[in-house]
Design a protein that fits this description.
The protein is mainly alpha-helical. The chain has seven helices and four strands.
């Protein structure tokens, strides 16, 4: 598919420009993280990529270094206890995701696509297999992210990811990036420690 090749090209260019333009913000966040708690600046976690290959996703560390490893946030008991005070702001605003620009440069991810599952999120991986979701690169944002995010049930997340597979295009990606920006400003759909219980509406599938 020609668009996927073009998509890879603009992903690379925009990620490179983003890292350059946002470098002052990166510096501020690095200082905030170091002041807030001990540990590394970046957090690495094994995720499922295109064709079910594994890669290490990068984030600014927003949890304590003694947090249980390889455990989805929704499976942690009282997840708020593991989130550092100052850097909790990063999760609410999704600024902790910015290092994924590096993942995009490396070819692990795209700006838009299904959010990559943890390697051991077998329920989500199995549901996504029904919609051929693993045939494309995972994204920083996607159809499920702008239609409920953490408030959605896992089967509904996979179904929405499948909608993106069907509608993938430049115009779809532009719309999802704009919607993501608006949702981040409103801090919609962030549920620490849960995948939510809301069911999707027919309008979200169109």
């Amino acid at each position: 598919m020609f668009y996927l090749k073009f998509k890879r090209f603009y992903d690379f260019v925009l990620a490179l420009l983003g890292l350059i333009v946002l470098s002052p913000l990166f510096l501020v966040l690095v200082v905030a993280i170091k002041i807030d708690s001990k540990g590394p600046i970046l957090f690495k976690q094994k995720r499922v990529g295109k064709d079910k290959t594994h890669f290490n996703i990068l984030k600014f560390r927003s949890m304590r270094i003694d947090t249980p490893k390889e455990t989805p946030t929704h499976l942690l008991e009282n997840p708020d206890q593991w989130i550092t005070k100052v850097v909790k702001f990063l999760r609410k605003t999704s600024l902790d995701e910015l290092p994924q620009f590096i993942n995009i440069l490396k070819g692990d991810m795209s700006f838009v696509g299904p959010r990559p599952a943890l390697w051991n999120q077998y329920d989500l991986i199995e549901e996504r297999d029904k919609y051929d979701v693993h045939s494309i690169l995972p994204g920083v944002t996607g159809w499920a992210q702008v239609n409920g995010r953490d408030t959605l049930l896992i089967p509904d997340k996979a179904k929405l990811d499948g909608v993106y597979i069907e509608k993938i295009s430049l115009w779809t990606d532009i719309k999802l990036v704009i919607k993501t920006f608006l949702i981040v400003l409103r801090k919609d759909g962030v549920v620490e420690g849960g995948t939510g219980t809301l069911e999707i509406k027919d309008s979200q599938l169109k």
